[in-house]
C-alpha cells in the first residue's frame, strides 16, 4: 500500500506526545517538506521522462487550489513545445465495445515496438460514476505495469470544458515527458467526442458487430469525425457478423462528404482479446500520418487557436450565467421567450444590460 | 445616375435663397412627416394584413438607427404570438439549382389553394453581391404581383448573426400579418443553413441530378438537417438522371441516424419550370406537420430559447472581440498559441483579465 505512506494519517501517527521535542521527527518532517518538489525540479524531471513527476504535475493541473494552478501554468508554459514526432489518437465507442481491452492491446503493441505510450481519458461523468473509465486499472493490468506506459484516469470535473482543458494540458505534459503516442479515450457522453476530436490527430471509432442495423447506435456527427472505424471482437462466431458490419460501415462512410485533408476513412477488424488486427490498426494510423502530414501540423495549429478562443468564450459565458443578478431574470425570461410572450432578442438585450451594469 | 440625386451635394443645390419663405414647400414637408406612421398604427395595419405596413416594420427591424430599433422592438413585442397555424419552411440549394423558380412555383401553388405566402431570405453575402438572392425580383415575376404573396430580399448585414436575427424578427412580423406559410431561402454560405434550420419547422434541400457522384457537392451537416430532398429540373432528358440520383440520395439518407421526431426524410422529384411535382412537395410538408405536430411546437419553443441564448452569447463575444484593449494582444497571443509558444489556456486567462479590467 504505497499510497498510505504519503497520507496525512501516516504523518500524524508519527507525532507522539513528546513530538515537539523530538528533534529527529522535526528533522524528518522538514526533510519531507523539502522533498515536495519545486516547480523547477518538476519541469526538469518531466523532461527526463520521470513518470512520478509527470503524475504530480497533472495533479497540479487538476487541482482547484489557486497556488497549484499557478504552479501548473508555470509548468505548462515550460513544457509546451512543437514536437512533431508525437501522435495523438482519440478512441471512442459505447460501453461494452471493449475499449479498455483494445487500448491495452494497442498500448502493449506500441511499447513492444519501442514506443512510449500515455493513456488519458475525457469522461465528464467520471466524478459521478466514480471513475468508471480507466478507473478500474485492473482492466489494463499488463499496460499499467509497463514502464513505457503511463495511464491516467479522466480528470474529474463538473463541466466538459474543465475536463477537456485538463486533458489537453496533460497531453502537453506527456509529450514533454517524451511519450510518443497519446491515446485519449472517451465514452462519448454529450459533446465529449467533439472535444476529443478537437485535441487529436487521428480519431478512431470502435464498434461491435451486432445482429441488427449497425448504424442505429451511431451518434450524430461521429461518422464525419471518424478517421477509421475498427470493429472489435472479430473473433469466434462473431467473424461472419463482423464481415457484414464491415461492408455496411464501408458503404455508410462513402455517403459522407470527403475530408479536407484527402484521407478516406476505412473500416478495420480486430480482436483485442486475441491480439489480432492490432498492428493493422497502427499501420493505418501511420499511413494516415504519412498521407496527411502537412495538414496534420496545420490542424494542430488551428486546434491550439480553437482552444484559445473556446476558453475565452466559455469563460465569458460562465461569467454571465453565474452572475447572481442574471439568474432569476434569466429563468423567468426564458419561460416567456419559449412561450412567445417576449422576443428572444428583446429579452437578450435586457439581460445583457443587467450583466453589463453588474460588471461595472 | 440615380444615386447622385440623393447626394448631399444635390440637396445643397436645391436650397435657393428664397427657400425658407416657400410656405407651400414647408407645408408639404410637414405633411409628409406627419404621414410617417406611428408605431401603434403600424402594429394595427400589420395585424390587418397590410403589406406596406409589414414592409415598413421590416425596414425598421433592419435599420441601424437606434430610434428605429427601439420602434422595431416595440412592434416585435406587440406582434409576437403563439400562432400554430403557420408553417416555416427553409429552402437551401447551391446557385443554379433553380431555387427562385422553385419558390415561385411553390408560392403560386400555395396562393392558388388559398394560402398567404411570405418569402424571406438569409444571405449574409447579399450586401457584397448586391442582393443576388431574391434581389432580382424579375425572377419571381408572377409571385411578386400576387396580392397574397410577400417577398422580401435578404437583409444586408456584415454578420450572419445580424442577418439571422433580422430574418427571425421578420418571420414574427409576417405571421402577425396573417401569412400562413413562410418560405426562407438560403444559399448556404458558411453557417447560414444552420441558422435557417434553427428558425424553421421544415428544412428542404433542393438538388439537381448531375452526371457524377451526386453526393460530392453536399456540404457537411446538411444531410442531417434535411427533412426532404427535392431534385429539381426533373424534366426532358434529365428524367433518367433524376431517377438515378433519387436512388442514390435515398440510400444516402438511410445512412444517417434517425431523427428524434421519428420523421424519415425522403427524396422527391419536381420540375419547377413545368410546374410538376410541386403539389407533392407541399403534401409532404403537410404530412410532416401532421406526423410531428407536437414535437414541431416543442421545437419552436426550443428554437426561441436557442435564439435567446445565442443572442446573449454572440453579444458577449462581440463585446470581447471589439474591445480595443484586446485586439492587439489577441493578435499577438494567437500567433504564439498557434506555434505552441504559449498555452491556449494561459493566453485566454491573460486576455480575459485585460477585458475584465476594461469593463470595470
UniProtKB/TrEMBL annotation, chains A, B:
Segments forming domain AAA+ ATPase: 85-259
Any Pfam family from its record, for instance, is MeaB
Q: Which GO terms describe its cellular component?
A: cytoplasm
Name the InterPro entries on file. AAA+_ATPase (IPR003593), GTPase_ArgK (IPR005129), P-loop_NTPase (IPR027417)
| One function term, GO molecular function aspect | GTP binding
Gene3D superfamilies associated with the record: 1.10.287.130, 1.20.5.170, P-loop containing nucleotide triphosphate hydrolases
- Write down the PANTHER family for this protein, in alphabetical order: METHYLMALONIC ACIDURIA TYPE A PROTEIN, MITOCHONDRIAL, METHYLMALONYL-COA MUTASE
Tell me its family: Belongs to the SIMIBI class G3E GTPase family. ArgK/MeaB subfamily.
- In Swiss-Prot or TrEMBL terms, this protein is called Methylmalonyl-CoA mutase metallochaperone MeaB
The species this protein was found in:
Cellulophaga algicola (strain DSM 14237 / IC166 / ACAM 630)
Amino acid at each position: 500500500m504505497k499510497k498510505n505512506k504519503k497520507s496525512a494519517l501516516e504523518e500524524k501517527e508519527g507525532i507522539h506526545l513528546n513530538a515537539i521535542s523530538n528533534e529527529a521527527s522535526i528533522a524528518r518532517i522538514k526533510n519531507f517538506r523539502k522533498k515536495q518538489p519545486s516547480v523547477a525540479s518538476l519541469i526538469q524531471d518531466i523532461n527526463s521522462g520521470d513518470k512520478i513527476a509527470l503524475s504530480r504535475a497533472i495533479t497540479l493541473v487538476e487541482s482547484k487550489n489557486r497556488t497549484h494552478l499557478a504552479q501548473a501554468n508555470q509548468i505548462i508554459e515550460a513544457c509546451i513545445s512543437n514536437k512533431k514526432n508525437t501522435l495523438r489518437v482519440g478512441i471512442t465507442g459505447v460501453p461494452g465495445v471493449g475499449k479498455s481491452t483494445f487500448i491495452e492491446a494497442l498500448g502493449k503493441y506500441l511499447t513492444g515496438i519501442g514506443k512510449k505510450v500515455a493513456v488519458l481519458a475525457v469522461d465528464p461523468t467520471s466524478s459521478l460514476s466514480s471513475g468508471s473509465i480507466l478507473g478500474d486499472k485492473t482492466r489494463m493490468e499488463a499496460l499499467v505495469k509497463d514502464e513505457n506506459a503511463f495511464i491516467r484516469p479522466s480528470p474529474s470535473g463538473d463541466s466538459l470544458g474543465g475536463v477537456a482543458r485538463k486533458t489537453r494540458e496533460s497531453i502537453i505534459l506527456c509529450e514533454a515527458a517524451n511519450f510518443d503516442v497519446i491515446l485519449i479515450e472517451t465514452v462519448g457522453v454529450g459533446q465529449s467526442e467533439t472535444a476529443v476530436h478537437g485535441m487529436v490527430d487521428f480519431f478512431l471509432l470502435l464498434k461491435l458487430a451486432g445482429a441488427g442495423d449497425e448504424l442505429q447506435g451511431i451518434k450524430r456527427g461521429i461518422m464525419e469525425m471518424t478517421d477509421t472505424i475498427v470493429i472489435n471482437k472479430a473473433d469466434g462466431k462473431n467473424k461472419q457478423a463482423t464481415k457484414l458490419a464491415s461492408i455496411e460501415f464501408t458503404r455508410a462512410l462513402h455517403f459522407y462528404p470527403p475530408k479536407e485533408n484527402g484521407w478516406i476513412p476505412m473500416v478495420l477488424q480486430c480482436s483485442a482479446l486475441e491480439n489480432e488486427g492490432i498492428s493493422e490498426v497502427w499501420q493505418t494510423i501511420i499511413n494516415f500520418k504519412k498521407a496527411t502530414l502537412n495538414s496534420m501540423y496545420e490542424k494542430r495549429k488551428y486546434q491550439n487557436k480553437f482552444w484559445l478562443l473556446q476558453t475565452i468564450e466559455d469563460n465569458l459565458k460562465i461569467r454571465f450565467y453565474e452572475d447572481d443578478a442574471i439568474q432569476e431574470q434569466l429563468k423567468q425570461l426564458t419561460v416567456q421567450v419559449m412561450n412567445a410572450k417576449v422576443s428572444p432578442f428583446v429579452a437578450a438585450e435586457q439581460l445583457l444590460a443587467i450583466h453589463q451594469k453588474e460588471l461595472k
